[in-house]
Amino acid sequence: MGATFIVGMLCVHLLCFGAMFLLIGRRLQGRRMGMDVFALGHLMLGSAYVLQLLGGPPGWNLMSVVNHTLTLGTPAVYWVGAMRFFDRPAPLWRPLLALALAYTAAQVLVQWALGPTARYALLSGMSALLFLAMTIAVVHGARSFARDLRVEMLLFAVLIGGICVLNVLKCLQILSAGLQALDMDSAFQMAFYAYMSFLATVLAPLLIWLLLRRLTDELRAAAVRDPLTRLLNRRGLTEGLQAHFRARTAGPAQLLIVDIDHFKRINDTHGHAAGDAVLCQVADRLRAAVRQGDLVCRMGGEEFVVICLDTEDAGATRLAERLRAAVESMAVPVGGRPEAIRCTVTIGVSQTFAGGEALDRALQQADAALYRGKAAGRNRVEPSDEAATAAYRGVAAV
Length: 398
Prior knowledge:
The chain is α+β, with helices and mostly antiparallel strands.
């Protein structure tokens, strides 16, 4: 009676959280992050337990066959939901239908050849294999694509590993004691369904926590990124620079202002869509050419900023020349036009600085150098000159 009550409460819990996940997925609209798939998994498992309660003692009947098929399909559905949660496309309906048909046929064959005991043992054994595969995948994810959620992923692995162990034990008990091992009043069944109830209680809120964590991280990333080029914006640049100088071993930095030559002409001649394509291509070239750890920012319009960390004058000048050459060599195709758009950049280089509070001064130095480079003919790298910077400030003030 106790295990039956636990299963009944588990059904209510699964169906309610399934409906909640479905509503959350709809609120997320185009990008559901797998919540609709998790809702399907909860509804399938809840329905399987309802059929188990209505079907009576273990045996061969339609409810039992459907119950086993839904139960085995649930881990596969959760797997697809997890893949989609991490933005990895995974098909759902065709593989699920193929699995359902194959397992239903396998049940019929096992029942006919070996009897009901083997059919129930088959379910526990196959469930154990699926949950083992899920555990391995979750551990792999914690070490690769979900490293920022390592603690949560390892907790998932422990919980899912617990289901795997229980299903192995259940399979062994069925093989040794027959269908009597499935008596709802037995201590093992009580422990099995108590753990399943605990798992359903813990995993659903944990999944919602992961969803909120990912959405919050994405909002935080959006606040420091330029929406067009996905480079840092001014806020992201400042935060990255401050983080660098907080380190005890932080070396000096140097700032480059990269400005696309005659960008207004590109917009006027080819349209703003072509101008956006040029900005994105330039951003990609800058991102690919800088060293790992350097900061790349779009300040606005056609102006970019690169901060070379732990560098000196010669290193920054070499990087600036590499950036200039990379942009000069690129060609941006424009739909409907036979010729690609080509452009150049002028780069102003600041003096070295050793603190986040010196960022504004470095920007002024690089801007003054950029002004001289534009006046000298564009498509060039212009180093900073303190006297010229002071004169530039006077011109800018007028």
